[in-house]
Design a protein that fits this description.
It is built from eight helices and nine strands. The protein is globular, with a radius of gyration of 17 Å. The protein starts with a strand and ends with a helix.
Length: about 230
């Protein structure tokens, strides 16, 4: 039986790179429908959605096809949350059997989000199970997110250290960020952004020397369980 997977990006559609990754992780024949919370907005309108502070900052790439997305932007989390219920509703109208919210940030309950898979919960659950105590390393898109994201991951018995790595960075920049993080001697690393790809993981693994959890593939494997 053919299944349909809905994907919400906090940026814009199309993002053929994200859709292709989820399609490769889903059961064969799964139809992938991707919609963006910022769909319908012009570049000028997107540029007005400026974050209020570090806690309100999200990183995304705007619409793009082929191998990647368009330009990198910082946007207001509050603005994305306000537009998300309508995006979820459109995917439900598309007849999706499962929906994933393709962002590793923490989000409050939103209208119509029952049954929607949030990658932050998948990644956090894996890290908790694999590292009850110790030092968790984070790769994050923006340096100004470090305090907010360290607080998100904090729990008793866990020390959190973070290094910034833009998902659009080249191999040399990825290696340098991994080496900075490795200097903190983490026991496990979580790559805390949906725009990190398997290629990014391959670039950072040699320098890290410890297991690294990639959000998009970890989430994809859970979705496969849901769709099989």
């Amino acid at each position: 039986m053919s299944r349909t997977l809905g994907v919400i990006t906090i940026g814009q559609a199309p993002r053929d790179d994200i859709a292709a990754l989820f399609a490769s992780l889903a059961p064969a024949g799964t139809r992938v429908v991707l919609r963006g919370a910022l769909d319908g907005l012009s570049d000028a309108e997107v540029d007005t959605l400026t974050p209020e502070n570090g806690a309100d900052t999200l990183y995304t790439r705007l619409r793009g096809d082929g191998k990647g997305g368009g330009r990198d932007v910082k946007i207001s989390k509050k603005a994305v949350i306000a537009r998300s219920p309508a995006t979820i509703a459109r995917l439900r109208a598309d007849g999706c059997d499962a929906i994933v919210y393709a962002c590793t940030g923490e989000f409050p309950p939103m209208e119509g989000d029952e049954g929607v898979l949030f990658p932050s919960r998948v990644l956090n659950g894996l890290a908790t199970g694999l590292l009850p105590r110790g030092r968790l390393g984070l790769l994050i898109p923006l340096a100004e997110q470090a305090e907010k994201l360290a607080s998100k991951w904090a729990r008793p018995g866990l020390e959190v250290v973070a290094e910034a790595l833009a998902p659009s960075a080249d191999a040399a920049e990825a290696k340098a960020a991994a080496e900075r993080l490795a200097a903190h001697k983490p026991d496990l690393v979580a790559m805390d952004c949906m725009s990190y790809t398997p290629a990014t993981k391959e670039q950072v693994k040699p320098a890290l020397g410890v297991p690294a959890l990639l959000a998009i593939t970890a989430t994809g494997r859970v979705l496969r369980e849901m769709l099989d």
